[in-house]
Specification:
single chain, 127 residues, mainly alpha, 3-stranded antiparallel sheet, disordered N terminus
Length: 127
């Protein structure tokens, strides 16, 4: 018997590939759905209101009081302290204290949307 016949008899069948490999992957990537993807992440989970507006208002009021009375300390960062001072905070040494509602007003001036650029424009991520 030849070696090929012996190999077939020992394994029970002729050797077959796993169906993968370079050509199969290339065919998959260049098929009818190639390049069709969502341009950004789509959130499939619904939003939930776990706190009432009254509870959120209490948290904001408490945060305003803490920031006004206790403040935030910025160690070894004179540039940050200077920026806070120009924005209207009371700066003493390394401590910055904020008027109630001041940070909320500053947050309102921030950009509405941020886009993270991918290598290709179709792969950018937007909230």
């Amino acid at each position: 018997m030849t070696d090929a016949v012996l190999e077939t008899e020992n394994t029970g069948s002729a050797r077959k590939g796993r169906g993968g490999g370079r050509n199969a992957k290339h065919a998959e990537r260049s098929g009818p759905r190639a390049g069709i993807r969502a341009p950004y992440i789509v959130r499939g989970i619904p939003t939930y209101d776990i706190m009432s507006e009254e509870s959120l208002l209490k948290i904001e009021t408490s945060a305003d009081r803490i920031l006004a009375e206790t403040g935030l300390e910025f160690r070894d960062d004179p540039e940050a302290l200077d920026l806070w001072k120009r924005a209207g905070a009371r700066v003493a040494g390394t401590l910055a204290k904020f008027k109630p509602g001041m940070l909320r007003e500053l947050i309102a001036t921030v950009l509405r949307g941020v886009s993270v650029g991918g290598r290709q424009l179709c792969r950018n991520v937007r909230p």
